[in-house]
Amino acid sequence: MTVEMSQAAARPRPKGHGGAAPADKDAAADKECTDGVAITQFAAAAPFVAEWRVDSGDWVALAALCFIALVVRCWRLHEPASVVFDEVHFGKFAGRYLNGTYFFDLHPPLAKLMFTAAGRVAGYDGVFDFASIGLDYVAAGVPYVAMRLLPAVLGALTVPLAFVAARACGYGRDTAALAAALVCIENGLVTQSRLILLDSPLVFFTALTLACWAVWWTHQRRPFTRAWWGWLAATGVALGCAASCKWVGLFLFPALGLSAAKDLWDKIADRTVTPARWMAHAAARAAMLLGVPAAVYLFWFWVHFS
């Protein structure tokens, strides 16, 4: 509104006969701005980011980031060849899943189920009990490298997800590549993604949630289309998976909830959005950001008890 009014005030008025008419015209234009037309247009356009079109340069950057991230996280993955830190717990839980032995753990089941699947594929029989830190994997014949490969791959995929999120937020390719490179070489993320720990799956699904949410925002100008629904549903599924790895993932709910609430608040000022349309927006966000994650969370507990 300010820009349009400033431009209206700055327009030159012709001298001589008829000088009053343009002035009246400008006054009418200013009145139209204050009546809410320009305000509505500004409120409708301000929160949105232009839809991101992936080009060949983006594909090259993604491929390079994936390759570098895999090298960083998988380099000498076999070392050390012994139980490290909390592998003593989560490796043990994978073995108990395979043996059908009941156990209790304070964390939700998804990440432990993923380690169980990786161990089964690699030939882990569940006999090795991960009883204490320092036990030798090689002597016991445990396919620990394959089980560590799962968090390593998930940690590597977090890097291109950072690139996608940055590009969807409107940043240039070089800025997005820099952000992803910093994620790639961050020491804590590298370390936790090389061990049988819950943190790498949690961080992966957190990054996936934020990337899907960022891409969904780029479709806001075309609400209720197939792409709009698809990215919103993908956000809900990833959100449920993050909460199903560790309860720390629940902090994503207020983060996305505040973003959704701000968006709905802005739509109240948009005169092109009818009350029925606004209710449809609110219901869609509630279903996909609350209902879908809850269903995903309960599904993984059903698998756990099965």
From TrEMBL:
Domain of life: Eukaryota
Keywords: Glycosyltransferase, Transferase
Enzyme class, spelled out: transferase
EC number: 2.4.1.109
The protein, known as: Dolichyl-phosphate-mannose--protein mannosyltransferase 1
Gene giving rise to this polypeptide: PMT1_1
